[in-house]
């Protein structure tokens, strides 16, 4: 087990059940100190932008797990918007896609994006999640 | 036994004719000598005439004309080849006695056919090649034509007349050329002719023509400019071929292929939906199982088992939605019947009366242009219900919803349009996903993202189309083409 814990992780997903389960995993495995959850890309972008305006740059998460299929603003659009502002935070932010899509088109698209650290296909394996959080810490 | 009515001399000597009596044909001397038979062979049977004298290419048409003339008094004019005793074909123009030829001041009681030798004799070589040309033209249903741009005259061969169902003596006219095309292909015909006559561009196209009997006909038309010595364009020469049967097959094949393509697209879509929507539930289930295995605490295990309940109930819901979609695909041959738009709307209004009342919504409808449609009644209701409730659901916060519904014809298809004054949809952003499953674009809590998906499926399953027009904050219009 690692010695340093991630301070703030972020999950963007519209599936309530998934969020509850992943919360539980993170809690029981103590993968991070704090967790913040958004139901779609728009909510989170709005939040991040507010952080920038209020100069609360420290409150930006270290790791973001984002779903692809979401209402209002989907994962792809979030990534596009987020890439525009992420350099304004003085922090290394790791982005993972976590999606139930096994569509090769989605996987290839994710690979082509530099801002994406990896593509995790649901169901998430707990061990793998642990490794990712430890690596990012 | 056979009586020959003898017309007065000058006629008998100048004109070849046949007198038609019962089943026999009596010939004039001149006609007999024209074809090299002795004057005493005055009587022929129709069968002899058809099988031995007339060229086989002309005999079918002649037979038709002959019976129409004898039975229905329909006059005709036909040019034909007739075999002489020596076995050579001579060209005659055959006309009927519609002017009631007067013999000795007595109106003839019998019917007569007059045979005039063709005035312009073509030399033998030309005749021979003409025979092959005729054969080719007939077997391939190809007619040829010429438009003289200087004299502003147009010329057709017999095959052209036959294809376009004009009589043998019909003279085509440049000024009336619009008659030969149905409305939809006039523009194309005009364009091709102008380009050819002005720029010398030859053409090769498939176009619909119109016969004299107003029958539409697909032809393959080719044309090229004709130049004089000074290289000026003086005319257009061309051929056209009757391809109506082939074209009909091609069009029906195209239709079938379109249907298959759309079915395939729907199936593909469906497979994608199934895999994606079911996967999200199964992956949740896997995660739960993994969590149960990784924890030691009994209470926690029990709690996790409880969450399986949530997963299964949403899995059920998804499967119900999918089932609904499958039902649409398989019930396209459900019985259609004449449905009144107003009736359907009435049912919809009754079933969501509370919602309409609560939101103070106004629904205006105008079905005066088209009031009924042959459709699956349940589908029409479901489509109206989905679109009307959508309009109310996404009403503008600052005004009461007003929904206008109207029907009309467009390109001989029935169109239903539903317009609201709601918040609108940003089509640049969401246009592509609007009709997807589980796509919602608003923060409304009751947005499920299944309505428009089902609506689109219902419409497309019956070969219709749905399109959307919208301006954010102003309006949304759904246009359904049945």
UniProtKB/TrEMBL annotation, chain A:
One GO BP: phosphorelay signal transduction system
SUPFAM superfamilies: CheY-like
Domain Response regulatory: 8-137
InterPro entries in the cross-refs: CheY-like_superfamily (IPR011006), Sig_transdc_resp-reg_receiver (IPR001789), TCS_response_regulator (IPR052893)
Modified residues (4-aspartylphosphate): 67
Keyword list, A-Z: Phosphoprotein
PANTHER family: RESPONSE REGULATOR RCP1, RESPONSE REGULATOR RCP1-RELATED
Name under which the protein is recorded: Response regulator
Automatic annotation (TrEMBL), chain B:
Enzyme class: transferase
Entry's Gene Ontology molecular function annotations: protein histidine kinase activity
Ranges of residues in domain PAC: 203-255
Domain of life: Bacteria
Keyword Kinase: yes
Reactions it catalyzes: ATP + protein L-histidine = ADP + protein N-phospho-L-histidine
Domain Histidine kinase: 273-482
EC number: 2.7.13.3
Keywords: Kinase, Phosphoprotein, Transferase
SMART domains xref list: HATPase_c (SM00387), PAC (SM00086)
PANTHER family for this protein: PAC DOMAIN-CONTAINING PROTEIN, PHYTOCHROME-LIKE PROTEIN CPH1
Record-given protein name: histidine kinase
The species this protein was found in: Flavivirga eckloniae
Lineage: Bacteria, Pseudomonadati, Bacteroidota, Flavobacteriia, Flavobacteriales
């Amino acid at each position: 087990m690692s010695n340093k814990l991630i301070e703030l992780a972020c999950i963007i997903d519209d599936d309530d059940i998934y969020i509850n389960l992943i919360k539980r995993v993170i809690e029981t495995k103590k993968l991070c100190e704090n967790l913040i959850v958004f139901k779609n890309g728009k909510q989170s972008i709005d939040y991040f932008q507010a952080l920038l305006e209020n100069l609360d740059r420290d409150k930006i998460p270290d790791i973001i797990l984002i779903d692809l299929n979401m209402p209002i603003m989907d994962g792809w659009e979030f990534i596009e918007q987020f890439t525009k502002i992420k350099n304004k935070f003085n922090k290394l932010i790791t982005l993972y896609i976590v999606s139930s899509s096994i569509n090769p088109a989605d996987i290839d698209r994710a690979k082509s994006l530099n801002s994406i650290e990896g593509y995790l296909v649901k169901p998430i394996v707990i061990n793998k999640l642990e490794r990712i959080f430890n690596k990012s810490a | 036994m056979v009586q020959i009515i003898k017309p007065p001399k000058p006629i008998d000597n100048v004109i070849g004719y046949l007198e038609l009596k019962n089943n026999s044909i009596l010939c004039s001397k001149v006609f007999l000598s024209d074809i090299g038979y002795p004057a005493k062979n005055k009587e022929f049977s129709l069968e002899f005439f058809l099988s031995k004298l007339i060229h086989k290419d002309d005999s079918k048409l002649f037979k038709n004309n002959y019976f129409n003339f004898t039975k229905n008094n329909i006059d005709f004019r036909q040019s034909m080849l007739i075999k002489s005793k020596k076995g050579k074909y001579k060209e005659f123009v055959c006309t009927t006695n519609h002017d009631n030829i007067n013999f000795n001041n007595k109106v003839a009681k019998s019917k007569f056919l007059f045979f005039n030798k063709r005035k312009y004799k073509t030399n033998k070589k030309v005749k021979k090649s003409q025979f092959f040309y005729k054969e080719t033209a007939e077997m391939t249903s190809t007619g040829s034509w010429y438009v003289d741009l200087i004299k502003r005259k147009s010329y057709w061969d017999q095959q052209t007349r036959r294809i376009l169902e004009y009589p043998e003596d019909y003279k085509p006219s440049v000024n009336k050329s619009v008659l030969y095309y149905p409305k939809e292909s006039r523009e194309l015909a005009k364009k091709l002719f102008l380009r050819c006559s002005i720029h010398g561009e030859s053409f090769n196209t498939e176009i619909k023509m119109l016969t004299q009997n107003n029958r539409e006909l697909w032809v393959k038309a080719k044309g090229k400019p004709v130049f004089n010595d000074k290289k000026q364009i003086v005319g257009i020469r061309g051929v056209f071929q009757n391809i109506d049967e082939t074209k009909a097959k091609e069009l029906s094949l195209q239709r079938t292929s379109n249907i298959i393509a759309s079915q395939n697209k729907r199936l593909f879509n469906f497979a994608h939906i199934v895999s994606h929507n079911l996967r999200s539930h199964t992956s949740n289930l896997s995660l739960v199982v993994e969590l149960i295995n990784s924890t030691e605490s009994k209470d926690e295990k029990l709690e996790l088992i409880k969450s399986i309940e949530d997963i299964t109930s949403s899995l059920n819901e998804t499967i119900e939605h999918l089932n609904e979609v499958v039902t649409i695909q398989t019930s396209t041959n459900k019985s259609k019947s004449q449905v009144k738009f107003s009736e359907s709307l009435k049912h919809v209004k009754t079933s969501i009366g509370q919602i309409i009342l609560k939101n103070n919504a106004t629904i205006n409808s105008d079905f005066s242009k088209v009031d009924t449609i042959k459709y699956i009644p349940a589908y029409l209701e479901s489509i109206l219900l989905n679109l009307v409730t959508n309009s109310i659901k996404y009403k503008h916060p600052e005004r009461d919803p007003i929904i206008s519904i109207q029907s009309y014809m467009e390109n001989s298809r029935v169109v239903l349009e539903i317009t609201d004054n709601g918040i609108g949809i940003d089509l640049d952003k969401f246009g592509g996903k609007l009709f997807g499953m589980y796509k919602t674009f608003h923060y409304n809590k009751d947005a499920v993202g299944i309505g428009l998906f089902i609506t689109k499926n219902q419409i497309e399953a019956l070969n219709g189309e749905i399109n959307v027009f919208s301006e954010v904050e102003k309006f949304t219009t759904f246009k359904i083409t049945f």
